[in-house]
Amino acid sequence: VRNAEKLERLATTDSLTGLYNRRHFLASLEAEWSRFHRYYRSVSVLMVDIDHFKSINDRFGHAVGDEAIKAVANACLEGKRKPDIVGRIGGEEFAILLPETGLSPAKGVAERIRKHIAEQTVMSPDGEFHLTASIGVAEASVSMFGMDALMNAADQALYRAKAQGRNCCVSWSPPPTAKSAALLGR
What is the mean pLDDT of residues 64-92? Predict the structure, then answer.
């Protein structure tokens, strides 16, 4: 039984942070996506990316980069609500699943997590430094074709946060329809 539990933990968690890995996060999202379609319960996703992570690795080395990743993982855990699921989905990128959560409360969670990250300090050979992160926020909508569309929407919002100067939270909004775009052009 102990070995089975250990194998389960190894299969579902990221070894550096102890967070859920990409595979487990996506399986959790798939279950919430099904609930969203069956019961029309809101679900939102946050995409979190450490700002200027490459320069941290280049300047201080990968060991300090790993400490930065662990600090952000801890800040995500501190800022999330009990039912929320945090996963490390790649390098310096994290995703947070917010079950039964609309866009407005999701933005509140995102901002709380962003502030927790900004409070983190990481030690380096040159002394300590602070981290920042950009966060994209998206809520599922019936017009989305699958959970990949929800992840893509949060990712698009994340890239807009990066483009707006980083260390901020940006919400995804659907592109205007042809009719509303024509009205906006008037």
Answer: 97
Concerning whether 92 is annotated as a catalytic residue, the answer is yes
What's the burial of 175, exposed, middle or buried (CB within 10 Å: 0-12/13-18/19+)?
Answer: exposed
Two structure tokens written together for 92: 């310096």
Residue 69: count of CB within 10 angstroms of its CB: 25
Q: Is the pTM above the cut of 0.85?
A: yes
> In degrees rounded to 5, what are phi and psi of residue 19?
-75, 170
Three-class secondary structure of residue 17 per DSSP: coil
Reported residue count of the chain is 186
The residues that bridge with 169 in the sheet, in sequence order, are 135
State how far the Cα of 27 lies from the Cα of 78, in Å rounded to an integer. 23
Separation between Cα atoms, residue 93 and residue 96, nearest integer Å: 10
pLDDT in tens, 82-107: 999 999 999 999 999 999 999 999 99
Among 92, 100, 119, 139, the active-site one is 92
Phi-psi region of 182 (alpha: psi -120 to 50; beta: other; left: phi over 0): alpha
Average confidence (pLDDT) over 12-32: 96
Query: Helix or strand or coil: residue 16?
Result: coil
Does the pLDDT value for residue 186 go beyond 60?
no
Question: Could you tell me whether strands 169-171 and 133-139 are parallel, antiparallel, or unpaired per DSSP bridges?
Answer: parallel
